[in-house]
Specification:
It comes from Gossypium darwinii. The protein has about 375 residues and is an alpha/beta fold. About 30% of the residues lie in helices and about 15% in strands.
Length: about 375
Amino acid sequence: MLMAAATFNSLTLPFSKPEFPFSSIARTHIPTATLNLSRFRPTGFLLCSLSSDHPTTAAGGQLHHKTNTNSTDPQPQIHTCTWNWKGYSIRYQCSGSSGPALVLVHGFGANSNHWRKNIPVLAKSHRVYAIDLIGYGYSDKPNPREVGDSFYTFETWGSQLNDFCSSVVKDKAFFICNSIGGLVGLQAAVAKPEICRGLFLLNISLRMLHVKKQPWFGRPFIASFQSLLRNTAVGKLFFGSVATPESVRSILCQCYHDTSQVTKELVQIILHPGLEPGAVDVFLEFICYSGGPLPEELLPQVECPVLIAWGDKDPWESIELGRAYGDLDTVEDFVVLPNVGHCPQDEAPHLVNPLVESFVSRHSKSPANASTTI
């Protein structure tokens, strides 16, 4: 999850190092938080176009194709598609025509383009899908004040992920997840274990601002601060101050250990969807979400194989705290990625892609975990 550990210059929390989800926005100086979704309408159609830019919206159940010809390499084509979920337009990308199905789940404030260095490589031997969670990227961003306080929760995103596998992938799938996306993958796997073949979690969010992880004396302060951001002009002013190329670049340089990977392209990938109508409301809603599940609560319930990999230079999600997840019986291994920050899939794809391929290959051979259309 592109989590902005924000700090309003003069404002810091005295009781714990907070996290602040990064919705195409920021890590200035302010205490951080975490967010989520749930609630719906009827399911519908799907539109596909082949390109990695903002997709057009389908007016019906037809499929349109456009080819991405940005590279002369004989790589699998990447299709940008729109899926109608519960009445909302959901953008995703897909590539590859054979092999096990993989669904890539981005972190907070990111989108499916954050997997641009992984999709073409993994698609050579897998069917790869990368989805924009509702509220993020180029998917619809319903106003939380109109759809209800319980919309942006892990239950909603987990339901979206499972429905995506049933309606679009039409198969069981491996979930490859970064940061907050890891909670989404876990929630989906616990809710419908028959869909998830395996979980590969990259720097999963520790959710340090969760109410259970705060001392009693700090909780009122956090609640008041979140209310200030969500219910007054302060939140939108803050969002506006960080939703700039300069601020986004600064934030990315904090969470990427190798700052040479923070390119103009990456800045635009994160910033552009965050400037779309509705993005600020989703961002402010999420920073007020201090409940919901924790990784340590969901991991013991998972029935599929789980591998956790962690960039050891992550400044927002401490690897020392993350190592504890490796001790759980449901986790087969905890892999340290040296000299890598919070978003290993983009900063160090040369390390992540082979690990994904190995994990999927290992767990695709078991008859009990064989691919079955759903």
